[in-house]
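Bit of a strange request maybe. I'm writing a small parser for structure token strings and I need a real example to test against, not something I typed by hand. Could someone generate the tokens for this chain?
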Amino acid sequence: MKNVFVVNDDSIRSPGLSVLIKGLEKHNLTIVSTKHIKSWASKAITVNKYIKLKEESIANHKAFVIDGFPADCVNIGLNHIIKEKQDLLVSGINIGENATVGWLLSSATVAATIEGAICGVKGIAFSQQLSDETYDEITKSVRAKQIITSYEKFFQLSGKVSQIITDYILENKLPSEVKIISINIPPEEKYNGKWIITRPYHWNYGSLFSKTSKGYIKTGGNFTENKVTQEGTDMWALHNGFISITFYDLPLIPIINKKVTGYLSELKLF
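Reply from user aminoacidic:
Good idea to test on real output. This should exercise your parser:
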């Protein structure tokens, strides 16, 4: 049985987290999650504030809940909660994709794997692309502490993918230069049955803020819609129904070479 460290940035109530846990429960899981949604926090570390930790239950598993950032969860979890060496860190399943350079570097889901790699544990970040309407509905329900099991249906594809890929990596040692993997999964209705190795799409999302009488507030930015034409990029992959798999060394150097391509040559999702 392998030791797998599970972390999430959408809070302990995330349907993506519960689906991930159910898919990986044959392993020895240590689950550490944020208390609240911490999207766009990147690799923030809490300073000048005591971090509180408590135990809860999710998907019939014990979980540690931290009132802090995902990177806090990883650092405290790996250095204080557990004593056993972890074979792999799995972050997600994130509510929404973490594709493109802008979202990748802002993502707390991906940043959790970076913190893990810094602490000596390689990791995978799984992110599920959703429609704007579904994303808004799920995050609103999570923040309102409503029952979220009904939203697990949107993570069935990513749940299966995360299980298969996690098992594959646990059975096949990663190339030494690979420290983290970011995997983005399209909605099930768009999935074309294939995966490709990608690089992050670079774009300018413009202003993320709107000016109001009270000051500036984050409202979003420009979105790529279906305008991405750079084949082989993560967002192009999602727009065309592929699962996007991007390998990184640190500090976030994308790796696409024969060794990486060959590493996944035997991967079969279904």
